[in-house]
Design brief:
Blueprint (H helix, E strand, L loop, with lengths): L24 E6 L2 H13 L7 E17 L2 H25 L8 H25 L6 E16 L1 H16 L7
Antiparallel strand pairs: 1-3, 2-3
Helix pairs in contact: 2-3
Length: about 180
């Protein structure tokens, strides 16, 4: 497996089989991933060997953003909707192999059974966690406090110089 910045010059192609700390010297540090990625893009356009560059997220945080409050209507509506999609899919598959011409029976049966199963599973899941602190809907992200750009020592000084020139541009913010 290769990433966007891997290439023939990289010593170990692809992802390491075991967790491996990154190597290289820091050539830039940024508050957001977008800024770090922009810096690497600048290095690439400046003919820098980006296959020797690594972006490292430092000070990792697990951030849970609250979307809203859970309620029986929301839980049942979401369960019915997800069940309907799955039931529709199964019904369409059954309809493809149906010998009768233009029959919507398998589609409607799959849709109906999917809605019922979706409602049941959502209700059981919500009822089993009710009263134990799961009264909210949320989305979880892993984010970093800062993003360091590392380069191999043989090219680190040149990389720092290129990124310093990028930072000195009048419009050096994210486009």
């Amino acid at each position: 497996m290769t990433g966007a910045f891997s290439g023939p010059g990289r010593a170990n192609q692809g992802m390491p089989k075991l967790p491996t700390p990154p190597t290289g010297w820091p050539i830039g540090s940024y508050d957001t991933y977008q800024e770090a990625h922009r810096a690497v893009e600048h290095l690439a356009t400046s003919e820098f060997p980006v296959e020797e560059v690594t972006i490292v997220g430092v000070d990792l945080m697990l951030v849970e953003r609250v979307i809203g409050r859970l309620s029986w209507p929301k839980v049942l509506g979401t369960g019915a909707l997800s069940g309907a999609w799955f039931g529709l899919f199964v019904g369409l598959l059954l309809g493809l192999f149906n010998q009768q011409q233009a029959s919507f029976g398998p589609i409607l049966v799959g849709l109906g059974i999917g809605v019922v199963f979706g409602l049941v599973f959502a209700a059981v899941g919500y009822a089993s966690t009710r009263g134990r602190g799961r009264e909210i809907a949320s989305a979880t992200q892993l984010v970093a406090g800062r993003y360091d750009v590392l380069a191999q020592p043989r090219n680190a000084e040149r990389g720092r110089d290129l990124l310093a020139k990028l930072a000195m541009r009048p419009n050096s913010g994210i486009d």
